[in-house]
Amino acid sequence: MSREAITGQSALPAAGTPLWLAADGRPIGCHEKIRVLDENFRELRQMLVDALEDGVLMGADEGHLRACFARLAGEVPLAFAPGSLSSGR
Fold first, then answer.
1. Nearest 5°: phi and psi at 27?
2. What is the pTM of this model?
């Protein structure tokens, strides 16, 4: 379910972070969990900006870099089984 369907807002609000959803599709309500997820998102975004800019400055193709970063995100392994540590809420 999208942020728009739940709240009437876009997936990325003005602050630039997504609406974080639990495995059951409902929004995560714990403020501390949201704070950590938002912080991680912002840090990862800045790392990607830095890596993209470095690559382009070194002559790499922007589209190729973006594709490589997207592929990397899809390949990152999860060190535990989903749901094995907590309810996710």
1. -65, 140
2. 0.72
